[in-house]
Amino acid sequence: MPRRRDTAHYKDVMAAVSGNLQDSVAKAAAAGVPENNIIIDPGIGFGHTWQQDLEIIRRLGELKALGKPILIGTSRKSLIKMVLNLPVDERLEGTAAAVAIAIANGADIVRVQ
Q1: Distance set, CA 83 to CA 54, 69, 79, 98 (Å)
Q2: For residues 27 and 34, is the Cβ–Cβ distance under 8 A?
Q3: 5, 27, 58, 111: which is the annotated catalytic residue?
Q4: What is the pLDDT of residues 26-79, one digit of tens each?
Q5: Which residue range(s) make up the domain with 50?
Q6: Cα–Cα distance for residue pair 40/88, rounded to 1 Å
Q7: 77 counts as catalytic
Q8: Is residue 107 part of a domain?
Q9: Does residue 27 carry a catalytic annotation?
């Protein structure tokens, strides 16, 4: 089982996320994955605090330096719960807002459910 990344202790979450994604892109390319088949996902809701997730969304443009399309998945995530204090079945508007902000900040692909 892969080890869960815990970036909650980093002072600069974007440096950690960017470094991990850069390593993953290099591994995928070395394994023969065609460059145009590689996308990056900063992992909203996985191993970050909700404040760090918001910072990642705010700073998505920094990931453009990796030269890959950016996928973001914020659908009904706990960061929306923490910001709006809403149960999962009432987070549609929060999801839409998070998606819009992510697109404005550089997301190329969004995953919603």
Answers
A1: 10, 27, 6, 11
A2: no
A3: 111
A4: 999 999 999 999 999 998 888 888 889 999 999 999 999 999 999 998 777 777
A5: 36-111
A6: 26
A7: yes
A8: yes
A9: no
**Tally of domains in the chain:** 1
Marked catalytic residue, from 5, 77, 81, 91: 77
In a domain, 100, yes or no: yes
Estimate the crossing angle of helix 13-30 against helix 50-58, to 10 degrees.
Answer: 70
Does 3 map to a domain? no
Give the whole-angstrom CA distance, residue 1 versus residue 62.
30
* Residue in 67, 71, 75, 22 with CA at minimum distance from that of residue 42: 71
Residue that wins the pLDDT comparison between 9 and 93: 93
Q: Write down the pLDDT at residue 2.
A: 43
Of 39, 37, 43, nearest in space to 16 by CA? 43
Task: With a cut of 70, say whether residue 91 has pLDDT above it.
Answer: yes
Say what the pTM is: 0.83
pLDDT, tens digit, for every residue of 19-38? 999 999 999 999 999 999 99
Determine, yes or no, domain membership for 31. no
